[in-house]
Amino acid sequence: MTANGWLQIGVFFVLVLLIAKPLGLYMAQVYERKRTWLDPVLGPVERLLYKLTGVDADVEMKWTEYAASMLIFSLATLLLTYAVERLQHWIPLWNPQHLPAVEPYLAWSTAGSFTTNTNWQAYVPEQTMSYLTQMFGLATHNFWSAAVGMALAVAFIRGIARREAKTLGNFWVDLTRGILWVLAPICIVYALALVSQGAIQNFKPYDTVKLLEPQHVTTTGTDGKTVTTTVTTQTIAQGPLASQEAIKMLGTNGGGFMNANSSHPFENPTPFSNLMEMVSIFAIGGGLCVTLGKLTGSPKHGWAVFAAMSILWFAGVATCYWAESQPNSMLKGVDQHTVQMGAAQQAGGNMEGKEVRFGIANSALFATVTTDASCGAVNSMHDSFMPLGGMVPLANIMTGEIIFGGVGAGMYGMLIFVVVTVFIAGLMVGRTPEYLGKKVEAYDVQLSMLYLLIFPLIILGFAAISALLPAGLASLSNKGPHGLSQILYAYTSAVGNNGSAFAGLNADTHWYLVTQGVAMLAGRFLMIVPMLAVAGNLATKKIAPASLGTFPVTSGLFTTLLVGVIVIVGALTFFPALSLGPILEHLLLRSGMSF
Amino acid sequence: MTDVVFLAASIVFFVVAVLYVYGCQRLKGGRNDA
């Protein structure tokens, strides 16, 4: 670890902190339908959209109506994306490479993946998706799924803030305003900033260039014979990258235009673009803490939640940076070990799977940030991390991605933890738990626990089955504890709607495409429903004045207890699985065994 | 044929999700509810 590395991590956090307040207050204005400086431009567009779709913006919805609207919208957009993928070869627009239709298993899994904000990609995008599919099928989903998450978070916040109310807002209005006022304007500026750094934005066919030096490639055929071919040209993929990259990061979607994702120089050209990308992952999640404080009338509560997220983020990045800065003990005695030990001219550490231009600090930071949130974009290969370094992204997703989190999803996930924390605090002192004046009762706790239990149930269930079935094991590139980590990561990423991968696992098989598709849908929608039920129930309650027995949710004690509950729930649930995966691999590595 | 299966599976999932909404709402009337 170096001072330079820590300085860069510090600069990143300061930027997140500086953005949180103005963005959070702006989002509060947007979702409360108060005046903003963009109203003269966007107001007429909004009214036109409501007129065309028949939405009455003044009609509010009960939580059940809000949930049903969200489900109908998600089903419609899933089927639309599936259709675009399957029909892309028939649509003459923007398919200069004449790519064929996407195979149905992959098309369904991908449609589910983008509908749920997961963006798990079991394919090579530049060889599979036409420009039209990338833009209309996938990038639009990045806006939709992000806006759905933000709408749901705001609905939960309204549930806390409102007194004796039956409604949580209007889903269609929240969805529309999230896209028009928040995501679209920021993405326009952001995409241009990425272009200024070197990200490409075009509709050209792919370029073919002649290699400076011919390459000889030896492959083994199905008959077992080896064939050596000489490669003299390289194809360089093109496309409308910058526009997709902006929402990919801001909306914590993470699905890359290129297979190499944010380690590709067209997606993430410079260290400055790398910083922008990392900050934008946390921007809305951090801002929503301020929105929470503003809309509930308790700004300190918003900052207390922000502090809990920050503590957990720091614990993750410090562990990951430390683990990746260590030399691989298996390399002792060979030249490579000397390189990894570091020297005056270079920092040392595990550089396998990392971009030299980003180095270890920015790779560890990116991996931590992208899994704290449900982004899933990568600028390094998590599969190549040291066992404990790779455990950090895995453990981050296992917390439920509530550390700033996916746009909206992180906030409502964190608020479920707040309800459980307040409940536990109430049990400790023997008083009826209250959350900002709302009594937390049996129904709220039952549904909060349902939310928390569905998550590990799906992950561990599918991972256990895959670890036993030949269809699950056939995809592994490594055996032993590392292989288990690959399976565990795949389902954790799917259910957590993250989308990053331990890339050693081949997920483009019927088994993984179907089970991960189901896992992504279940991980998104079966958790949203009980969350909205809690919000709807909280909204109906009176707000009691604070008394001596009220547990303050603005203090350092609250932040500490909240962090403790998150860590304990995560540890109790997933520690056995982690012990058999990355922790065992770490111990075996130190005794000279690798997989 | 595979397209029809995936279409049907998607619709079934979301129908189940709507029923789940109903189930969560019904839970409110449980005997442990305050």
Provide a descriptive summary of the structure in words.
The complex is a heterodimer of chains A (595) and B (34). By secondary structure, chain A is mainly alpha-helical. Chain A has one domain. Helix content of chain A is 63%, strand content 5%. Chain A is built from 19 helices and 4 strands. In chain A, a hairpin with a 2-residue loop joins strand 3 (434-435) and strand 4. In chain A, helix 6 packs parallel to helix 8. The longest helix of chain A has 35 residues, at 556-590. Chain B has 34 residues and is mostly helical. Chain B contains 1 helix and no strands. Chain B starts with a helix and ends in an 8-residue tail after the last helix. The mean pLDDT of chain B is 84. The interface between A and B is medium-sized, with 31 and 22 residues.
Could you write a compact summary of the structure shown?
The complex is a heterodimer of chains A (595) and B (34). Chain A is mainly alpha-helical.
Overall number of domains of chain A: 1
Strand content of chain B: under 5%
| SS-based class of chain A | mainly alpha
Largest interface: A-B, 31 and 22 residues
Quaternary status:
heterodimer
Which residue ranges of chain B are poorly predicted, with pLDDT under 50 across at least 5 consecutive positions? none
Note the main attributes of this structure:
heterodimer; A: about 600 residues; mainly alpha; two-stranded antiparallel sheet; 4 strands; B: about 35 residues; about 0% strand; rod-shaped
